Structures are given as structure tokens and as C-alpha cells.
């Protein structure tokens, strides 16, 4: 066996001890080894301690946290090294990349400043040499036109490009091991594939070892050599990546594996279609929601710095949602899918086209609270980030009571309470959680609350804007199952916006594929996902990580943060502001 | 706005935390409560008539009979400090309450409506910002005559833009969050969104600004009285007393200026400490 570059031996991590007590132990026993040139996946749900363990390696734990056990970097026990030497070891041998590159870059400084900083101040290179090397590194990670990028600021680059810049910056010190913490979680599938392809190239050329932290088991299986599964602060088992399914023994691993169904299997599990097909046959074919020729143009600052350009977010989008039906809209970020949903719910005003709900024109947002309330009883929306979509100062009960009282103004106090309890039961949320604030709930519980709130109005359409994208895989499955159950029991129609084809497959009968504001493909879910006609749909499907998946660089990288800017000669109707 | 509301109704927990961890906060509470008691009962607590001259020897150092000593007219300094609490404290309270209400209303209006309303409101805010508070106060005295009323109202106006800017920025940020969109889609009325969701979100920042503003207002008003433009001798305002004690300071009897100055400093410090801590707890509670 080759040399071990990173070793964690029975590492435990505890929170700071309050006066006279002892801290809470968050990681009990994390044991793993990364060999030279090897990619090790560290997989687990949020709260399993995977990020904490990685941060302990990099010395990035919050103030006061205590670490037990042994961490060895290249054979050096970090607890025995003097602080100056430890800093040196970490600076030169570790490279760390995080989930949110934008949060780790100073928005006012150029990419060049960021890239050369470590080279000049740590490695002591001259500024011009550092700049040349930075350009080489950017080129190595596939950033197009690197010398121009050096003068740009983070705001000018897309998320995928920024993540490559972060990777290039960690390469500056020529590390032996890369710590990658959920580096593609915030990216959509196609960008994820590009970033993973870059990493695969780098590892080949530089013999770089990698500790790859993710909650996405298929992704870890596809890009790593071995996978360590972590649960509640303990490493439960280590599996060879190629045969995870066959060799998994631990109950938790098996649960994780079954939560992340591969695309092929999921086809059989289209839970919605059979049961609802029967219902559909009986109801009138009139669509509850009809969108026609929708167009939305945003004004964005011009690339030249003067005036503004027009960015077409949605261009001639039309579809119908049958009563009690379910329609998915999929596409990458920037495809206009969320803008479409926001127009339907009256959060944006369309520049052209019509939105018709139950034969009524909804193109203009409702004016006044009464109009909004009337529409609220027909269409409701669930957002991506459950924490941000709840008022942090309200308890669950206060939040639901407000919604119920709003739509049942004549209900007495006990009636409202009874309805709130019923809603909690509908979303399978324990009544003991009702008096908690959102901060004291898990992500899945929070999303259940927002779903319960949207059900308070007894809506006929539920718009789900990436409603499960921010959740762990197991929680995703729970929430999707819940939504499916709600759909069966209430007959609510679902309009589901997602970049994840698998979640759409689980809930929807029909799917619309969007790209750069337009519709690429539209049809029944099985037809589109199993026999895609458009190349773009094929590419989306191909970029989903699965067993035997090899990330590929498919296309020249985008040249800016925005996929396209209107250059058409057709006059653009003036309308709302972004 | 009460401390209870700010901390999300967890007063008991907050008090317990304060008692075990934060002696500074306890000291601040003691000072603030003490000053409040002095403001209400000051006249009654005073051992002597604060305006009566020659109740004791002239410029006497602190003693059992005259704990803070006497001034150059033989008035008891303790009695004058006690009696002076109310006029010295009420002015700043009026300044911060008025400027907080006006500023919050202006800031929320600007953020809520945006566009032209925001443009006009922001220009008004900048216009007032351009005039220093003390200059406005002195101007008000020149126009409406000496006394505390004119400078107090002038300072209240001068403090409006600071609050308005802070609240406008906070409100814009809060209005951009998805929960506001969720409330909008729910069909919650604008007034309910504003007063039940937006305003509580802004209270911690408003409270912090109010306490800082209190300190500045107290110092500004003391300065105006010190300059002889505010409360007029023989009134026992702290600023007037500090000014009146100047000759004695040189003559080697610092008590006349020192004790009222000490109370100005203590009050300002205590209110600031309290404001900072309460805001921190409220924000921590939200996460």
C-alpha cells in the first residue's frame, strides 16, 4: 500500500465547555486514511460531522472547540508540531475548497489580487512572476481567457468559474492533498460535471490526493476510489467506490443508497402517475393553469460599464397544467425556470404573454391584499431555502396560525388551533415542535412548515421552486413522498421547478426542459427523460452522477456570469423592473 | 419597544444569562434604574433645597453633611445633582424617541415604496445630514430664544437621518428575503407585513441606534447648557452645573463640575452598554 498523506485516528471533536461543565461531543470517532494520489469520499447527511472533521484537519474549527485523537498530515502529528511549523505544513500541503466560492472571495478585489496573494506573501515570489504563474494555474483548471479574468471581480464570473478559481488558488502552493467540502453542491448538474472533470484531470497530472466531502453518495461513488460513510459523528464503514451497493453492510449506508436511486431505477418509481391517471381521466381536461408566450426581460449593467444591456430571462414560454396534474420545469441556473414560477405567483410582472388560471387572467400581479388573498387560495409557492422563507421571530404555531386566520377570517380561536394541528399532522410534523422557532428545526422540518403554511389556504396549485434542492438526500425523499401523499389526498396540482431531473421524475407526469429562457423539449416524463429528443436534455441526463459515471468536459466554458444577452432586433416591450 | 420583545419573549433566559455571565450588564442596569429613580424622585430625595444658597459653607469638600460638597454659593451639590437629573435626562429621551419614530417611519417608507418615493426620501435625509446637530440647535436657540425646548427639538430633527438611513438599509435587506415574498403570496395585508414582520425584524438595530443616540443627545444637550444656551442658571441642569463649576475647578474645588460630569458619563456609558448587549442577544436569538 502506498504512503498515507492524511490520517485521522479516532478523532473526536467537542464544543467549547461552559463554565463548570463539559462541551457537547459532535464527532465521536472519525477514523480514515487518505493515501498518496487517492480520492477518498466522506459521505453523510448534514450534522454527521464530516465538515467538522475536515475543518479540524485544516485548523478551521470555531474558537474553543477541542479535538481528541490524532490527526497526521504527511506523517506529522498536528498536535505535536509547533504553531509556526503547523501553519507551514497546512499552507504547503493542504488545499481547501469550500461550497460557496462567492462567500470566500472579496467582491471588491480582482481575481488576480486573490490568485497572487498567497504566492507573494507566503511563497515570496515577485509580483510579475506570481501573475504569470496565476495565469498558468487558471489555464490549467480550464478557465477560458485567463489574463482577462485576472482583471475581473468575482461578481463578473459564474459560480462554476469561481469554483475553478478557488481550485486554481489552492494549487498555487502545490499541495499534496485537496480537501473539497461540498464543492459542487451549490452548482447545477452540468456545471458540477465540468468542475469534477477539472478535478479528475488535476489529480491525474499532479498525483493529488483528495478528501471529497459530499452528501451525494452517487457522486462520491463516481469520482472517488473509496468512500467513507459517516453518521452521527462516527465513521461507520469504508467501501470501495465501484461496488458500494454490493458491499454495504451498515443499515445507515443502505438507507443512504436507497435514498439516492439511480436514474434508471427511478423510472419504475414514478409514484404519481398510475394513481393520478385514474383521477385525471374523470376530471374535465380544462387546464387549471395556462401560460402562453411568456416573456420577461431584465435590465442588467452593461459589460462595458456604461448604460445597460437587456437580459432575456424568459422568452416565449408556454405550457398547460391540468387540474390535479403535475408538471416539472427543469433546466440549469439561468434558464428562466424560477422567473417563470415567480411570474405565475405574481412576484414578477411579465413583459409579454399571458398567465391564465381557471379561465381568469393572472398576467398582472394582484393589486391589494384582498386580490392577493383570493389568488393565494388558488396558487401557493414553496421556496428553495426553508429557513429564509420563514420569519425567524415566529414560532411554527404563530406562523401557521397567521396563515390559517388569514384565509378563514370567520373561524373562532379553537377552530384555528384545530386547523393548525391538522396541518401539522398533514405534513407529519410532531406537535411538540410547534412552539419552536425555525432556528431550532432541521432543514427538512423547516420545509415541512413552509409546506404546511402553503396548504393553509387549501390551494389548487402548489408551485415548488427548488423546494428540495437545499435538503439532504434522505430528507429529499421524505419531503417528496410527503408532497406525493398531499397530492393524492387533496388533488392539488404541482408545478415543480428543479435543476434535478431525478426529483422531477419522482413527482411529475409531464416535464418542460428550459434553456436560456426558452423551452427545449416538452412532453410526458417518461418520453422526455427516457427517450430525450433534444441534445440539451441528453446532456442534462448524462451529467447526473451515477455508477460508472466519468465526468467529461463537454463544451467551452461560459464566458460570463450570464448565459446570453439579448441581441435580437425585435423591440422589447417595456415593463417591470428586476 | 421592550427588552422582552427584542429577545423574542425569552426574558427569563436572558436575565439568567446576564446574571451568570455579564456583571457589566448588571452594573449598567443598576445605573440606568438608579438614574430613572433619581429623575422621578430627585426633588423628594434631595436632603436640601437645591436652589437655596448658603445651606452650608462655601465650596466645602465632601463631608457627611454634604456628601458631594457645596458650591461657591453654598448650595448642596448632591441636592442639585438629584434635582438636575430630570431635566438632564428627559431632553435626550425626547430627542431619541422622536428621532427614532420619525427616522424609522421615513426609512421604512423609503424602502417599502422604492422608486421615486425612495429617491425623494433619500434626498431629504441627505439634506438634513448636511447640517450638524449642534449648529441646528444653536440656530434654533437664536430663533426661538434660550431654554431646553428649542435645542431638544432641533437635535431630534438632526438625529432623524442617522436612524432613517440605518432603517432604510435594514428594511431593504429584509424585504428582499423569501419570507417576505411568501407572506406576499399568502395574501397577508401590507400593514400586517409591515408591523408584524418587518418592524420586529428592525427593532434590534433601532434599539441599538437609540441607545447610542441617547448618549450623543445627552452630551450635545449638556454642551448646549454648558455654552449657556440651554437650561439657564440657577436651574440645576447637569450641563449648567459643569459650566458653573469651572472657576472653582481652577480654585481647587473640583466637586462642582466633577459630580454632575460623573453622572453624565455614567448614564451615557450604562445606556450604551445595555443597548449593545440587548442587541447582541436579540440577534443571536434569531439565528
From TrEMBL, chain A:
Matches recorded under Pfam families: ABC_tran (PF00005), oligo_HPY (PF08352)
Positions of region (Disordered): 552-578
Keyword Transferase: no
PROSITE patterns: ABC_TRANSPORTER_1, ABC_TRANSPORTER_2
SMART domains per the UniProt record, alphabetical: AAA (SM00382)
Top-level taxon: Bacteria
Protein's recorded name: ABC transporter ATP-binding protein
Automatic annotation (TrEMBL), chain B:
Compartment(s) of residence: Cell membrane
Database matches in Pfam families: BPD_transp_1 (PF00528)
Membrane topology: Multi-pass membrane protein
Domain ABC transmembrane type-1: 89-275
Coiled coil residues, start to end: none
Keywords per UniProt: Cell membrane, Membrane, Transmembrane, Transmembrane helix, Transport
Positions of transmembrane segments: 24-46, 89-112, 124-142, 148-167, 205-228, 259-278
PANTHER family, per the entry: D,D-DIPEPTIDE TRANSPORT SYSTEM PERMEASE PROTEIN DDPC-RELATED, OLIGOPEPTIDE TRANSPORT SYSTEM PERMEASE PROTEIN APPC
Family under the similarity heading: Belongs to the binding-protein-dependent transport system permease family.
Record protein name field: Dipeptide ABC transporter permease DppC
Source organism of this protein record: Agromyces allii
